[in-house]
């Protein structure tokens, strides 16, 4: 059966939407036709939101989280405990932990995990600025909240070996999280228990 050919502009729109994570060709087609059939202001508003986010959102100069103000709201918040830093792989993990509402420390976003097979080494991660934050005596504990998979565990072990000689307590989230799962998919109760039951890395 011959595949239907769309007009050039429609085909390009479907192709661009299909490049988004988790969006296959059929979903991209549905999204494209929704946008084409919706009132013009719907598509214009979406395009404006994407443009504004790309122009205004960047990395926090302190923690590396995505933000449209620098430093980010968490780093600016004087009620947060700056002596406890929770290290996560992605900005989405910050959102997941914030849903728990029980963590009162601050964050550091690595923007990835060590993966030699994919060419991701320490230089590709936001590690140097983390070590800079530990240079003073204000940080008491670093929670390594990387994902409980091979890459996340390797990253946590690497960071622990760098941090422990500095005299800072290093802990890892308790194994209430399923192995191989990502933090963004964990429910608040499971994630909360993992934070509360974190273990010091020897």
Automatic annotation (TrEMBL):
Q: Where are the zinc fingers (C4-type)?
A: 60-75
The Toprim domain extends over 83-178
Where is the chain membrane-spanning?
A: none
GO terms under biological process: DNA recombination; DNA repair
Which keywords, in A-to-Z order, does the entry hold? DNA damage, DNA recombination, DNA repair, Metal-binding, Zinc, Zinc-finger
Q: Which HAMAP family match?
A: RecR (MF_00017)
Q: SMART domains from the xrefs?
A: TOPRIM
Query: What job does this protein perform?
Result: May play a role in DNA repair. It seems to be involved in an RecBC-independent recombinational process of DNA repair. It may act with RecF and RecO.
Recorded hits in SUPFAM superfamilies, A to Z, give: Recombination protein RecR
A GO MF term: DNA binding
Q: What is the protein's name according to its record?
A: Recombination protein RecR
Q: Which family does it belong to?
A: Belongs to the RecR family.
Q: Which InterPro entries match?
A: DNA_Rcmb_RecR, Rcmb_RecR, Rcmb_RecR_Znf, TOPRIM_dom, TOPRIM_RecR
